[in-house]
Design goal:
The chain is an alpha/beta fold and about 350 residues long. It is built from 9 helices and 8 strands. A hairpin with a 5-residue loop joins strand 6 and strand 7 (about 315-320). It is globular. Bound molecules: CU-O-CU linkage. Its cofactor is Cu(2+).
């Protein structure tokens, strides 16, 4: 298994990267503690859609997320729970700043392999609990950007308000706030009508979730083991809509398509976390679709025992394995509020 070493070093940033140029979290005072599941009596955090224009309940849900981001941004940068550090830890895991234990020459790269879904699930798990702690709300749940259903196919309105903590000036100005998403966007606008774009998007979902995703390795990504070089191959969902929506959201006039369009900077946009909540939700959806046919996730110990480091809501460094995060009910969260309209969108 790929085990993240506690030492974090210099990142390999793309040319013309924007500061900060260092992305390691604070050096821990002691060894990391092993992850423990939350108490089963904790309230279940139900993640709901962040719609472009929502009902009263959805707006309250977004307002809480907005407050949480403001509180995280207000923490000193030395605090591993601050927005600054939370954004940076993603950079550390995609630029070679974190290394494989026992292989100091090899990075822990959490993209383009079977680590993609589990790493991001663990990342959001801690992010959500930090937010809940700062809000004093143990039931706080992240909203998700439901770009796979027609009502969610625009950037949620709350992100476009320039005076909101959810705002990021480094976004594609042509895509906020009313443009429909293009789930396989590669840099060129398709100029479809809204109706054509929706049909196109639903077909893409069908392809990436069903027809091209019949095996764990096809959906989750290729095996990646200790001592091996990174990026053996991404799963369907990671390539698109996941990557394509990063590119769609970032500022295309910047050399690295910051913030969302490059991994080193993506966590700096509060949109990242609602985007990834949807990616995580679709992992659950894929498991449910597959459940009755055959074996779902990998059972390979090299996958199950791979581990990552995160700071938790008490600012303790925690080591968490893939095995730890496979049951979201045990993690005390759930998804609700949207259907899967693309189930019937076979092209
Ligand atoms: Cu770690 Cu959406 O990328």
């Amino acid at each position: 298994p790929i085990v993240t070493d506690v030492l974090c070093g210099k990142p390999n940033l793309p040319p013309n990267a924007l500061p900060p140029y260092h992305c390691c979290p604070p050096v821990p005072a002691s060894e990391p503690v092993d992850f423990k599941l939350p108490d089963p009596s904790e309230p279940l955090r139900t993640r709901r859609p962040a719609r472009a224009a929502g009902s009263g309940a959805e707006e309250q849900h977004m307002a809480k997320y907005e407050r949480a981001i403001a509180l995280m941004k207000a923490l000193p940068r030395s605090d591993p729970r601050s927005f600054f550090q939370q954004a940076n830890v993603h950079c550390a895991y995609c630029t070679g700043a974190y290394r494989q234990a026992g292989y100091p020459g090899l990075p822990v790269q959490i993209h383009f392999s079977w680590l993609f879904f589990p790493y991001h699930r663990a990342y959001l798990y801690f992010f959500e609990r930090i937010a809940g702690k700062l809000l004093g709300d143990p039931g706080f749940a992240l909203p998700f950007w439901s770009w796979d259903v027609p009502e969610g196919m625009r950037m949620p309105l709350a992100f476009a308000n320039a005076s909101s903590p959810l705002y990021d000036p480094l976004r594609n100005a042509n895509h906020v706030p009313h443009k429909l998403v293009d789930l396989d966007f590669m840099g060129a606008e398709k100029n479809y009508t809204d109706e054509q774009q929706i049909v196109h998007n639903l077909r893409i979902m069908y392809k990436q979730m069903i027809s091209s995703a019949s095996l764990a390795s096809l959906f989750l990504g290729q095996p990646y083991r200790a001592g091996e070089s990174d990026k053996p191959g991404a799963g369907t969902m990671e390539v698109y809509p996941h990557n394509t929506l990063h590119v769609w959201s970032g500022d295309i006039s910047h050399p690295n398509n910051e913030d969302m369009g490059d991994n080193y900077s993506a966590g700096r946009d509060p949109l990242f976390y609602v985007h990834h909540a949807n990616v995580d939700r679709l992992w659950e959806a894929w498991r449910h679709i597959r459940n009755n046919s055959f074996h779902v996730d990998f059972t390979d110990p090299d996958w199950l025992d791979s581990s990552f480091l995160f700071y938790d809501e008490e600012a303790r460094l925690v080591r968490i394995t893939v095995r730890d995060i496979l049951d979201i009910e045990k993690l005390r969260y759930a998804y609700d509020g949207v259907d899967l309209p693309w189930l019937n969108a076979r092209p």
